[in-house]
Amino acid sequence: MREVSYYSGREQTYLKHFFLEKYLERVAYVIGYNQSEFVYIDGFSGPWRSADEAFEDTSFVVAINILRRVRDGLASGGKRPRIRCLFIEKDPQAFAALQDAVGRFPDLDVTPLNGDFETLIPTILRYIRNSFSLVFIDPTGWTGFGLRKIEPILKHRPGEVLINFMFDYINRFLDHPDDRITASFDDLFGGPGWDSAVYADDRRENAILELYCDRMRGLGRFEHVARTRILKPTSDRSYFYLVYGTRHVKGLREFRGIEKKVIEEQERVRSTAKQTHRVARTGQSELFAAATLTGAASYEQERQVQLSAASEKLLTLLRDGRQIEYENALAALLERPYVWESDVKALVQELRRAGQLKIVGMKPRERTPKEGHVLVPPATDAPARQPR
Question: Most CB atoms closer than 10 Å: which of 32, 58, 74, 339?
């Protein structure tokens, strides 16, 4: 993908592509190594605001380049899975540009498709067949991917879904006086009843995302739905969320591992964007480069809130003498933003030292919890479940 300077004024798009590149590479390697076929779907391919003749600042070219790299890497190790891509675009003019662009990559199995994403669901499922699929849904607004209408895609097994939930745009219209506009959100959220989240006062943003994630989890029958936030380039406000549905804790691990890298990159990119904005506004250059300046406190504050909530969640899971396998506790805690596996391991060890839990199955030389261990409240009289 293009360097961040090429995305000036569109830093949020750079961070989205940064995330997509890192995550797609990981999932394609894992699936390509273990299965015979991997299918990637982009439901809203564009291109829309590309500033590059080669479209290297678009999600579909980012995906193509990554998948070609994964294919070659797997081949060097003796693995040759079939990798297929389906790129969908509704707008005829944008589709013509898409069709021309993907034609430059004859060495990858790529199919462009002109039409409406929701309408094409049966065609998409026929294309996927029984293969593992990663479906990326990246719209420009809130229409065209209503949860009920894309339910068959959400339910496809084996597969995962990554949705760009355009929070800033959506939030501006949720309490619009035009009934026709507000009614369109029934599609987005998979039915009525979403207005209770809109009027949640200071919890509004979190309530909206929790509602969306819960409904996506239910309709897709996902074991886990997680989200990560991308901020506006020059202000400490949410631009959009990437919402992710998976059926395995390994997917959550990868998602949070990539999130950690994206957060670090986001702090660096936004620091530079803010400095550029200040200099343009004041006309005064600044002595220190943005990279040497302290990042915004909002991220660290939010992270501490989430870590505290994760601690309370773990204690709740252990309440009343209940036992829980470490991997199940890990999955429950990784659904919280800004909580990573290293945090969960540290939290378990901290509670163990404080006498608030025991770890059954840990061998003398082991220092951290892992799959197969069982977390047990210290006061329980019940026999500890044997680790697998």
Answer: 58
Question: Under a CB-based contact definition with an 8 Å cutoff, are residues 256 and 244 in contact?
Answer: no
pTM above 0.85, yes or no: yes
57 contacts 2 by C-beta, under 8 angstroms: yes
CB 105 within 8 A of CB 130: no
Q: For the segment 281-311, what is each residue's pLDDT rounded down to a tens digit?
A: 766 665 555 554 444 456 788 899 999 999 9
Nearest to 170 by CA among 192, 209, 141: 141
Tokens 């509670």 -> residue: 351
Backbone angles phi, psi at 161, to 5 degrees: -135, 135
Report the phi/psi class of residue 199: left, alpha or beta, with left for phi > 0 and alpha for psi in -120 to 50: alpha
Tokens standing for 388? 């697998």
What 8-state DSSP symbol labels residue 270? H
Strands, DSSP E only, in the chain?
A: 37-42, 82-89, 109-114, 132-137, 159-165, 224-231, 238-246, 324-325, 358-360, 374-376
Closest CA to 388 of 373, 376, 377, 375: 373
